[in-house]
Design goal:
477 residues, alpha/beta, eight-stranded mixed β-sheet
Length: 477
Amino acid sequence: MNEARPQNHDHDETGPSRRSVLWTAGAAGAGLGLGGLTAGQAAAATPRTTGRAEAAATAPAAKGKTMIGVPFERRSTVRVGIIGLGNRGGSMIDLFLAVPGVRVVALCDPVKEKTAKAAKKVTDAGQPAPAVYANGDHDFENLCKRGDIDFVYAATPWDWHFEMARTAMLNGKHVGVECPIALRLEQLWELVDLSERTRRHCMQLENCCYGRNEMRVLRMAHAGLFGELLHGAGAYIHDLRGLMFDPTYYEGPWRRLWHTRLRGDLYPNHGFGPVANYMDINRGDRAVRISSVGTPALGLAAYRKEHMPANDPSWKESYIESDRTISLVQTAKGRVIRLEHDVSTPHPYSRINSLGGTKGLFEDYPERIYIEPDQSNDAWGDFGKYAEWDHWLWKEHANPPGGHGGMDYMLVFRLMQCMRLGLVPDFDVYDAATWTAPVPLSDRSIKANGAPQEIPDFTRGLWKKARPGMDSQKPEE
């Protein structure tokens, strides 16, 4: 995993680099219901009291049975449809094609050059030519209507994730979406309800959960090496200033525009997902509330002043997103999880990835460990000496293909394996909703001067029961 970190500069985990006008600027702002508002109006539209916090935590009546513990239908071949073929989707297709028992049936992107390039990858891999959907921004709806697709993968700008996940499930497809899965609490609840009603899995494809370090720490934590768990931390700290102002990296300024609309943690999943797994969130513990604070929004404006010409369209933008947001999440067992987000100031890439308990702790970036009785005298230990605790996925695939140190391949391989063998997925719609809830709630908390915001119990009380998750056993093929 370490060797992949320098690659992070060319990766956008949430979506492709190029998208049509409607897939970017036309939808920007819709996610929080703030479209068409000025920065001041948008801020005023968000409550500054904790009144809505309690209401947000109240679970609506269930419309179907829980999806906890529900396995996929077993199948010999998983037929996949991919929506979005830019940076993320255009690279992930290689991994779907590399996994045995997977066929890429259909592709969708309004940029026809991208669908043509991706379709060639499919035929070059020896598979039949895929159906192509490139007729405007809503052609993904026709892809989802096909009867020969088992799983829909969406890698598009954030504004479209909810609609695409919703459309896939309504058409009988299991669906996996890049981060974040949605942007409003009511959307998260709707995805939970739809998953339960349609009996289709809806997953946040959080690739960092499959990182080698993350999976090793997970197994060590579950084996009790850290003692009773007390605290953890995760983050998305990634200097994206150059990419957000690059006129060709993204199709339109959709990602930068979110910095004109929201003040909270825009991208909590990479940090929250792994720590939630360590602590068995939704599997014996629950994230109960979040309190967030944020710095002034200065980084993007400073970068623009130094690098962008006076006639650049970005000069019409007013940035309100905090350069650094820091959130504290409290769990039902009293544990504390710290989340940080910063993409607009100089900083080496970091996800922090820390876990502490009564017997010691692990900290990443750089990786180091201190657990008793192995370490003493305030001297960090060598995490590499704990390779025996690697997850079976990493023991079986020592040099996986793809970027990010192989975690992308691990995610695709394991998900497709679960679908082929008819297994319960490693995480589900309840995890997706929990890991994404800090997006709207951190914004609300910052605007309420750090007041705690209640995190909904998307499991409707079923979090109290322990159950398997990421720490899986190798299945029999």
